[in-house]
Amino acid sequence: MLTSDALQNLRTTLCDERDHLRRQLADLGVGGEGMAFDENFADSGQVAAEKGEHQVLANNLQEALADVDRALQKLDDGAYGRCEHCGVEIGEARLEAMPATRYCIDCATRR
Length: 111
Ligand SMILES: [Zn+2]
Known about the structure:
This protein is mainly alpha-helical. The chain has helices at 4-27, 45-77, 92-97, 105-110. The structure holds zinc ion.
């Protein structure tokens, strides 16, 4: 069982992570509503390639942000620290390493 101190530390870590991800998304010109590309911009192959990489990066960041938001929501609900697959308590060391993780190590490696 996680102590309230441990939970507080994890919450702080998750909030920092969320701010960090939001900043990176803002740097990419992404708000909450998908990509903000100027569609009139020259449609050369290079631009398309950059756009593609940009999109992949933005998608990864948004997925990570969604996981962090979800973890914070679970902290509020008191549901934090349990595997979403098998319901087992996730080890504290794993949570400290990956606070936004949704699965215990067994389920994560089996997926
Ligand atoms: Zn599990």
